[in-house]
Amino acid sequence: MTALAVTRLCKSFGGLRVASDVSFAVEAGERRLIIGPNGAGKTTLFNLITGELASDSGSIALFGRDITRTASRRRAHLGMARTYQIITLFPRDTLLQNVMLALLGLSPLRWSLLADLDREPGLQQRARAALARVGLDQIAERPLAQTSYGERRRVEIAMALAQAPKVLLLDEPFAGLSVDERREVQKLITAIPRDVTIVMIEHNMDVALDFADRITLLHFGEVVVEGTRAEVVGDPRTREVYLGA
Amino acid sequence: MTALTPRRAAIAIALLLLATLPGWVGNSYYINIASQILLWAVLALALNVLVGYGGLVSLGHAGLFAMSGYSAALLLDAGHNHFTANLAALAVTLATSAIFAVLALRAIGIGFLMITLAIGQILWGIAYRWASLTNGDNGINVATRPAPFGLPLASAGAFYYAVLVVFLIAVLAMIVFVRSPFGASLRGTRDQPRRMTALGFNVWLIRFLAILFSGFWAGVAGLLFMYYNQFVSPQVVALTTSAEALLMVISGGSGTLLGPIVGAAIVVIMKNVVSAYVERWNLVLGVIFILIISFMPEGLVPGSVRLARAGWQRLRWGRTASADGPATAALRGGLAPSREAERVP
């Protein structure tokens, strides 16, 4: 079954076309890698898929359901979660509170004025479990401001996983990480079960290529090549895009 | 049994002092000042919901504050009883808050500030110019104060206790609000609205409801103000009222519960007490605010906590350093302030 289908998606900022007839389909459980040089439109594509940007034309379907005009927040309720290239967390809160907020986002409890968030053991337990998945449960009570960059990357992933997504969009999850941190995050992403479909943008080919079932190469907002690792790496257009040869 | 922590002890002492205030103050002038501090604190707490927890700086809250006062005064003038007038006034304030929210939430940041300022000015213009309804600059007199459960609030002491009860309910409501999932959601929209949307939150609706909550308590404060003065006039709706409320929140410490209360106390004392001794009391108020913003940009309450903690840590490290030797002491001394700064909420 197709988890995510993007069909002829177009987006322009004034005269600049950032997505031009982009089409691809990601099967359920698949690991899809989106690559392309800087400015290719990869993050814009994620923003279109999550609804943070409205497309000019084309359609997006999540498990067969058209979500092109669905509000961004509703897409989260339908099983779509994402991480950001530039870490976007809540710096005044602890790690636990960050993940609890992710859980609240999908819970009717978020509207409650009378409940005490510190006395919601179920929510806390689930948040701790999500932090345990990324190996941060030992420092759950630590303020985010006192954590390393690598730990914050893992908190982002924990928040996304806490929402039990069906489709997870990872925007450069290895960006800015040291070799050791990269290895840890790679292990973490590899361990995500196949009931979660993953679409990942990544520049670091050493770690990313091993991860992908299929790869989509974007350039100037267009899909240039799509296929398996061998097909994309062997395609002369890939070399042309990256080396300009 | 619940343990007596320093925090609980401080709260108990504060409650005891507030409960016995008319007894140890004696003079009705100062009891009235205390009533003013408490009623302005309710407005500052209401504004703090938006400024401190929602990151939405409003310069139009005097409009909501005055809306309830004017509505109740008009209804009382028309012969309605206090209960009906107050209930209807709060309903009108809530409806106004909803319109206020729909208009103001078309923008955030400086745009939100400017829209709220414009709404406040429109309401001031209505109060000032629609003389057939509001009696213009002459305002509306309110003949009597209510007598809840048969207890007349005519005296300064009785009115103080009524204001104290409402103030304590407001504080309790704010505590519950801050600890609630909705409060956490509002803080999330302040820090990362884009992320909140991606997590499934309806950022606009959260802000809208926060404005209603804030507007309701601004309305309650407006009723207390109207009964305190037994009079409302366009002066209440003026920009200076909104600015003063904002100063209370910022100077005391936005995003804290105690900050707006302390801020209200500073402004009311400066206006009422210092002005009796210093002709240019506005100058003194300005200097105080400059000092607070210069040395405690986070506000008086969180700033004092930060300085006290830093002082305590230095004292502690200083003691340990004398045993460790000068090199370790220098290293600790150098690290202490930055570590502390990170810990302050």
Descriptive account of the structure:
The complex is a heterodimer of chains A (245) and B (345). Chain A has 245 residues and is of the alpha/beta class. Chain A has helices spanning 42-50, 72-77, 95-104, 121-133, 149-162, 179-190, 205-211, 229-234, 236-243, and strands at 2-13, 16-27, 31-35, 57-62, 65-66, 80-82, 167-171, 197-201, 214-219, 222-227. Chain A has a 6-stranded mixed beta sheet with strand order 6-7-8-3-9-10, sandwiched between helices. Chain A has a 4-stranded antiparallel beta sheet with strand order 2-1-4-5, with helices on one face. Helix content of chain B is 79%, strand content 1%. Chain B has helices at residues 6-25, 28-54, 61-77, 82-104, 110-129, 131-134, 156-179, 181-191, 193-198, 203-229, 239-252, 258-277, 281-295, 300-324, 326-343, and strands at 140-141, 231-232. In chain B, helix 3 (61-77) runs parallel beside helix 5. Classes of the chains: A alpha/beta (245), B mainly alpha (345). The interface between A and B is medium-sized, with 40 and 27 residues.
Distance between the termini of chain A: 38 Å
- According to CATH, the fold-level topology of the largest domain in chain A is Rossmann fold
Radius of gyration of chain B: 22 Å
Share of helix among residues of chain B?
A: over 70%
Which of globular, elongated, flat, extended, rod-shaped describes the shape of chain B? globular
Uncertain runs of chain B: 330-345
Portion of residues in beta strands of chain A equals 25-35%
CATH architecture of the largest domain in chain A: 3-Layer(aba) Sandwich
Major beta sheet of chain A, specifics? 6 strands, mixed
Element order of chain A: H for helix, E for strand: EEEHEEHEHHHEHEHEEHH
Can you give the mean pLDDT of chain B? 90
Number of helices of chain B: 15
CATH evolutionary superfamily of the largest domain in chain A? P-loop containing nucleotide triphosphate hydrolases
